[in-house]
Amino acid sequence: MEEKPKIIAKMTVLSVTTWAHDNVSIKMTAQYDPDLPEDRRFSSATPSAAYEMSCNNPAVIERMKPGTTFYVEFYEA
User: Fold this and answer.
1) Per the domain annotation, does 2 fall within a domain?
2) Residue 72 in contact with residue 11, Cβ under 8 Å?
3) Does pTM surpass 0.90?
4) What distance in Å separates the CA atoms of residue 74 and residue 6, rounded to the nearest whole number?
């Protein structure tokens, strides 16, 4: 089976909101700094993006601080 290439997005955490039962909602948006060549490359392929997930893993939540930037990989399951 041929492996398809990954889709990589560069996303920045916008907000982290705690809900009932320690569930946390994490919202992210596409990262863009016009001074960074990498961000200009990402923006040409993905000029806009939004991602939201719910999480209850303390190790993950600890790293998800507003303003923190991550690479997010998507690939077919």
Assistant:
1) no
2) yes
3) no
4) 6
The tokens for 6 are 């990954």
pLDDT in tens, 31-67: 888 888 888 887 877 778 899 999 999 999 999 999 9
Residue 36 lies in a domain: yes
Q: How many domains does the chain have?
A: 1
Q: Where are the strands (E) in the chain, listed by range?
A: 7-18, 24-30, 50-55, 69-74
- Is 50 inside any structural domain? yes
Encoded tokens for 60? 């993950």
Q: Is position 1 within any domain?
A: no
- How many contiguous H segments (helices) and E segments (strands) does the chain have? 2, 4
Structural domain boundaries enclosing 64: 7-74
- Helix, strand, or coil (residue 16): strand
Amino acid, single-letter form, for residue 9: A
